[in-house]
Write a structure and sequence with these properties.
Elements: H1 2-44, H2 57-64, H3 66-71, H4 86-98, H5 109-128, E1 136-141, H6 144-154, E2 162-166, H7 171-182, E3 186-192, E4 197-198, E5 211-213, E6 234-240, E7 249-250, H8 253-260, H9 262-265, E8 275-281, E9 300-304, H10 306-309, E10 316-321, H11 322-325
Parallel strand pairs: 2-3, 2-6, 6-8, 8-9
Antiparallel strand pairs: 1-10, 3-5, 4-7, 9-10
Helix pairs in contact: 6-7
Length: 338
């Protein structure tokens, strides 16, 4: 018994010593982090943490995301989804518990009120992208993938069409390729020279944008075109405003360049002809820099809301140019359309 107590005492003393050392190590780490932060603030303090906002970044973290400190977490996966704030969730649940929302496609008072809320939300999305309600429409979807799927299903593909996309793309964008190929269209990826990437502020002049075409794909090799595509076919070019994986931003000058100057961009390629339309996958890019559709008039823009404000999941939007919407061939109809 005495021997056991002696052993326990030794273990206790050892653990106590380990605990002291551990606390000392944590203290040193905290001290080092504090000094590193002070050095960082001396260099970048004027631009750090929303200096002109009602709350700076440290106050926002302490009040809206204190669960991170409670669990000792560092969250970096904002490319996957961002975190919702406490104030946001309080406002949501207050709205759900104090209001009556009805089916927006019915005619009851609650339904009509809900339809008005949806109309206002659509307008907020258009304002977010600086898009005119006359030139663009907002279609709510179950997410960015559903928005991309809608374009792939309804785009007016033909055997003369081409689907072109950048090598850096989300795999949901690549799903459009299958719809194009199933209609006999041609598909290929392109590499864009470094000058077309926007490291900070879209500084690339249009004339500097050049592409390198990868090998073409067709569903059936026997259907390869014997002559160049005609100028009447509709073609689609897709690129991300910001890459989910690398974080690199593409210059939005690509929109106007492909729509207006495809002959130069695809010089020597038989696929330079036709009517080119442009899709921006802004699911990642919208979180920090939404596209300005008054300057870069893309035909389709895909948005994912949980990447912007975390909750709710399963909610996205397709912002579509009014003229482009008229060309879409919807083959599935359901009860109510958002």
């Amino acid at each position: 018994m005495i021997r056991s107590l002696s052993t326990l005492s030794c273990v206790s003393l050892a653990l106590s010593g380990f605990s002291c050392k551990n606390r000392h190590a944590q203290s040193n780490m905290t001290s080092n982090m504090d000094s590193d932060k002070e050095e960082f603030l001396r260099e970048f303090g004027d631009d750090y943490g929303y200096p002109n906002a009602p709350k700076n970044i440290d106050e926002i973290r302490a009040t809206e995301f204190k669960r991170l400190d409670h669990d000792g977490l560092v969250y970096l996966d904002h490319a996957g989804t961002t975190l919702y704030s406490e104030t946001q969730m309080e406002a949501i649940f207050k709205g759900l518990t104090t209001s009556v929302f009805g089916n927006p496609h019915s005619q009851s008072d609650s339904s009509l009120a809900t339809a008005e809320i949806i109309r206002e939300a659509r307008q907020q999305v258009l304002d977010f992208c600086n898009a005119s309600a006359r030139d663009y429409k907002c279609i709510f979807t179950s997410g960015a993938t559903a928005a991309l799927k809608l374009v792939g299903e309804a785009f007016p593909w033909s055997s003369q069409s081409t689907f072109m996309y950048t090598m850096e793309n989300h795999n949901s964008v690549l799903g459009i390729r299958e719809y194009a190929l199933s209609k006999g269209a041609t598909s290929f990826a392109i590499d864009i020279e470094e000058a077309a990437h926007d490291g900070g502020g879209c500084k690339s002049p249009v004339s500097s944008i050049k592409v390198l075409q990868r090998p073409t794909l067709r569903r059936n090799e026997a259907t390869l075109l014997e002559e160049e595509p005609s100028g009447n076919a509709y073609n689609l070019f897709a690129f991300p405003s910001e890459c989910n994986f690398s974080g690199s931003r593409f210059s939005l000058h690509l929109v106007n360049t492909v729509k207006d100057d495809t002959a130069r961009v695809l010089e020597g390629s038989p696929y330079r002809k036709g009517r080119w339309m442009v899709l921006i996958d802004a699911a990642k890019g919208c979180a920090t820099k939404p596209p300005d559709l008054s300057k870069y008039q893309a035909d389709f823009v895909v948005i994912s809301f949980y990447k912007i404000f975390g909750y709710p999941t399963g909610l996205g939007a397709l912002v579509v140019r009014t003229e482009a919407a008229k060309l879409l061939k919807k083959s599935y109809f359901s009860g109510g359309l958002c």
